[in-house]
Amino acid sequence: MKKYIEFSFYLPFFDLIDDTDETSSLEELMRQFDLSLNIEGLDNQYLSYGDGAFRAGKGDIFVFFKKDDKESFILIDLFNDFTDQHNMVKLGVRCEVNKDKQIRNILSSIHSRAEIKSSLKESDDDLLKFEICNVDYPKEIRYGNQKYIINIYYNAI
Fold it and tell me: Is the peptide bond before 12 cis (omega within 30 degrees of 0)?
């Protein structure tokens, strides 16, 4: 039976997609999962939610599964919290324990480059796996008298 480990942290969206290296760390992370990501498409999706205060309460979750292992995935949560002033997004990764060294190195690179970030969480409790369960989506968020909807998309963009 395969064992899995999960990593997650928050960082500014533009620190996630912008990289000074020739090959971005996000692209390298996607390659580890045999995936290709249209970073420009992700950028366009993020910008489509609006700007400034109009962006609060908007954003969706995108999950990209490894082609040969549907238990391994990358999660990018673009939801903009109501108190967020730094364009923070969540990056989550679930992978087999025996492949975590390369993933850990890539995530460490992304994490260390980010100007503002949360701590890097590591877990073997399937928290990310439960977070992406499609029966929970679309998810309704209430803030004051407003209602906001978060959708989840699998292998999209």
Answer: no
The Cα 135–Cα 90 span in angstroms is 20
- Residue 12's Cα: distance from chain center in Å? 11
Instruction: Enumerate residues 6+ apart whose C-beta is below 8 A from 151.
Output: 60, 61, 137, 138
- pLDDT of 22 higher than 60: no
Is the pTM higher than 0.90? The answer reads: yes
Question: Terminus-to-terminus CA distance in the chain, angstroms?
Answer: 32
Q: Give per-residue burial for 28-58: e unless 16+ CB within 10 Å, then b.
A: bbbebbebebebeebbebbeebeeeeebbbb
Which tens digits make up the pLDDT trace of 44-95? 999 999 887 788 889 999 999 998 899 999 999 999 988 888 999 999 999 9
Q: Which of 141, 128, 65 is nearest to 151 (CA)?
A: 141
